[in-house]
Amino acid sequence: MTAQSDIQLGPFLVNEYGDRYLYPINRDTFRRIGAHTLYQKQFGDGLFREKTLHIIVGTDSGLLLTYLLKIGLPKGSRYLFVELPQVLERLNEEGLLSGLDERIACSCEQNLQNNLVRFQVSNYLYTERINIWKSFAGSDAFLHEYPVLYWSVRNTVDAIAWQTKVELGSQVFIQRQLENLADNRVSAACLKGIFAGKTAILLAGGPSLDNILPWVRENRNDLVVLAVSRIARRLRQVGIIPDVFFSVDPHAISFDVSKEMLDFWDKSIFINSYHVHPPLLSQWQGRSLYVGKRFPWEDGGEDEFLFGSGPTVTNTAFAVAVEMGFSQIVLAGVDLCFSQQGRSHAKGSNESLAGPQFNQFDTQVETNDGSRAFTHRAMAEAIPTFAIQANLAQQSGCKTINPAAKAARIENVLYQPLSGITFEPLAEPASTLLRRTMPTDDRATRLAYYKTLLGKLTTAESKIRAIHKLANDGLKCNDGLFGRNGLKKNFKYKIRMDKVENSLKRPAMAPYANLVKKYSLRHFVNIVRPDTDQEWSDEQIEETGRIYYEAYRDGASNLLSLLNMARQRVELRMAEEDPQTNIVKLARAWRQFEESGRVKLWEKRHTLAIVHCPAASSAHEIKKLEEEFKSFMLRHDSIHLQRSYRDAAPEVARSKAHMLFKNKDHASLSGMVEGLASMEQKEALPVLHLTTGYLAELNQEPAEALDAYQQVIEMSSDMAREDALRRIATLSLDLGDGKNALLALQCLSTMAPVYLPQFADLAKLLGQMQTALNAYADYLEKNPDDPVVLLKVGKLYKEIDQQQSAITVFEYLLERDPGNKDVRQLLEELTT
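The chain above was modelled as a monomer; its predicted structure follows.
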């Protein structure tokens, strides 16, 4: 976002309290009420929270900066103001930015990243001590650049926070990596270069997929079809069988949306990330290849592997496709954004069934046709990653095409309609070449792998146990260094602690110590202090040492449990290879690991054992497992579907529509109207009328807007009615209809007392002084200490010559806030 160069700021104005402000930025915000009073009301104590990074959009012509410096900065906190370049230049000319406390920075958007790094934003994110505030300039948005600036700041910080969250969430990836060790037998690296000069089409789940599937079906025999696992249901509906499925998600919800993939096991292969959700991999009956590192520790004997670029499955699938040697990759359903109607996925998905996913709207991106579309954080993060991938693909001779006009525009990805895409036909079916290329998979190779794997697990368990012991030694030394738990304070414990550290860093131990640190990162970050400029006390040093060794100890303990579980899985796979293993024993283990569908694979491998199965109980157990798996596959009312319906709730659309209206986003509002009109829930109707009213206002059609808002008022949605009444009041004032505006505010006042001051303000402007006083009084009955309203009451008494009443109000205000120079000045005018 670049601020417009033609902003005319004009001269500084001064109110009766000495506050200096620029009218285009703040207009009348500070004309009648002093900055001190307004800020106290707006921010309270939140703006002075200790050990917090406060990011503030706008400086209110420098007034908010002055207010902070006057009150004083709290311990361990930093303040980063983000302002428009012209405003910063003007403040600098006025000398307002010189000699600032080192804990305060004023930055334009262009320098935001550098200042965030300088203020150690990650440390504040680790400790969840970061706030983003809007100044009055940011919330009032008299300059339309401020809402754009706010969302840019929000997006920048959210992106860093999202990446930090991923780093802190490494536990689940390591857990899945260990759980999948038994089944991650063959690396996808075996497919490198096998499709040189050929064209692949990569099918993902975005809304544009539905428009491209007919073209895919028409050209199916001449393309290598790659698909993400979550669209398996849709592919089954339209009769398209992909050559390869991909999945990377470690969470259970992945199985909910991808389980139909398991029906394609005999015609497709499965390429999975090392951290894929285990039941999806373990119940796949066909050939599978893994992407990424097999082990969570450095292992010199590991096979060649392919890196799986994140953050989405589409990024991973594309990376693997490039490694496979394709000269051209066509993207289908790789939208990385929502449709204009708010739909996030193609037909056949839970999200499409639920309706527009308004709750997922996080930020906006540019599309291939130059318009704007909403997206959520994970998809937004995938865009720059994809651009880098496409550039690398281009350098290796692979062109990337996206034929969807409404897909997110990605650098190095060519937008080209389907009619202009040409490709060389395949000499043989892709499935034939894939199966011929993959290494042999039989009982002997699997058992050899399991045996080697057990040896690796034994080594890892031994090292992790040693780390657990070293951590306990470190805790004891930490106590001794400070004379805790009955130990005499002695510096010799510092020497022992150094020995513990040296042991953890030895070459044979370091890979496993690093694993523990990575697994326990959430605990290790508790050592981080954002206020690094402060000296540490002995108590803080002691606590830091304790947290450090406890993180090692607890991480090692948890990893030992996971390694034991991995061992059990490997031993189970070895037992599966033996046709004499009791099926009841296998069934118990399969249920424990949520993989009852593995009975299908067992049956395929042991046909003779089943035919000659002597025990009726075994046959019964097999049938029972098959029925359990079938029931699970047919279940559709999943947690993911329920969440999709929540994300499609019309009430969520209400707040999103208001934000779009504030940002004057005509195109997105128009799309939201279409999306709301397509929803069947009756709750969508008032939100539809409300959004229609917003759109009419942006189209300069006040009569149509008022008509739409009136329809909202006649419905049962209180929150939508409140929004409609607010717009009626504002629009009526703009049209010079004070009477209708006053009526709207009166209705609002019956809904919430917070509107009483606004009702009173307008009544006063219309000359209805007693009505104004009554409304102020009603409000103060519920909020007797509101300084802003009390000040207005005092000034109204002064205006109507009730001086004693005014003096009483001003004296009460000074008792509450002796430093309020605005009130003191008013009182002096009445008493001198």
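Confidence is low (pLDDT under 50) at residues 1-5.
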